[in-house]
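Lecture 7 notes: from sequence to structure.
We start with the chain below.
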Amino acid sequence: MEALKRIDAITSDVIDAAIGVHKGLGPGLLESVYELVLAGDLARRGHKIDRQVPVDIEYDGLRFPGAFRVDILVDDCVILEIKAIEALGPVHAKQLLTYLRLMNQPVGLLLNFSGETMKEGIRRMVNNYSS
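Predicted structure tokens for the same chain:
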């Protein structure tokens, strides 16, 4: 139960920071800019931030190091996938769910900074996969 409270507190902080970044910068910038500024804001709030984290995959006895990259990993337990696109689609949710499964992480946030407001661009995803 304590881990869930911690994750909820982290995701709440991330959402607050994302809304602040969106209000400050507005829509229309590159994903890399939002990633950089959001990571800086979260680090300033005291979170451990890892950017562009390599994700390995294994298939049929073969290992492929760094096949994917997660935009931001917060406090070793919440994955952030940053987007700056017109609309989120099912493929973006599947992408984040894949990262959650491959990294065995519990929760991720899909954050799209291109909307008029940040609220419409936030999706929380939970990993129900058990290995």
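Points to note: Residues 83 and 112 are 4 Å apart (CA to CA). Strands lie at 49-59, 62-74, 78-83, 107-112, 122-126.
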